[in-house]
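Late entry, evening session. Most of the bench is empty. Finally got around to the prediction I had been postponing all week. Sequence below, unchanged from the version circulated by S.P.
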Amino acid sequence: MSLPFDKFVTLINFRDKGMYISNPIYLEKKYFLYYLSPEKVLKFDIDDLFYYSSHKIMQRGSHLFVADYGSQLSVLARYGIKSYAVEGRDYIFANDDHNDLRYENIIVLNRYRGVRQFNFRGFVRYKSVIHIRSNYVIGNYKTEYEAAIAYNKAADILTKKGIKKSFQQNYIEDLSPSQYADLYMKVDISPAIYELKP
C-alpha cells in the first residue's frame, strides 16, 4: 500500500531526527522544511516549529494560509505583511526565493495602509496615498509614521465631508497617544483631499 506524500515526509523525519510531527516537516539544524508537495518546499526558522507542527499550511493559487480558530490566516501575516500588500512594493525576499520564509529573508518595506516607500535624492521618503474613485496623493513625508498618520487624517477629513467609504485606519503601536496626537496635528495634507466632493 502506497503512503500519501505528507505521511512519507513525517516518517522520514521520524527515522532521521527521532521526532514525530504529524505535518510534512523535515528538521534541519537551524530551520525546517515544510513540504506542500514534492516540488513545493517552504523553509522556516526553527522558532516557528511549534506553530506549524499544529497548523497545516494550505495553498490556493499563490496564497498560503492556515486555519486558525475558524479563520483563514495568511502565512505572510505572521511577518506583518497585510493582505493588500504587493510584493516588490510593500515587501521583498532578500535572496529572491519566495519559498524561503525565514525572518531574515523577508524585508517589509511598507507596514501601513496607503504608505509607499521611495528614494528621493538618496534619502528614503514615504508617500501617502488614499483611494476613493482613483488614487490621490496625500503627501510625501520623512517618516513612515507621518505618512501613516497622514493617511488616517485624510480618511477622517473625507469621512467628515460625507464620502461613504469604510477607511481602515492605521494603528501605530510604537507611538504613545500624545506622540500620535502631536504628529496628527502637524502633518500637512494635500489641498486636493480637502477639495474632494462626495
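Two things to note before I forget:
Residues 5-108 form one domain.
The chain has a mean pLDDT of 92.
Will write this up properly tomorrow.
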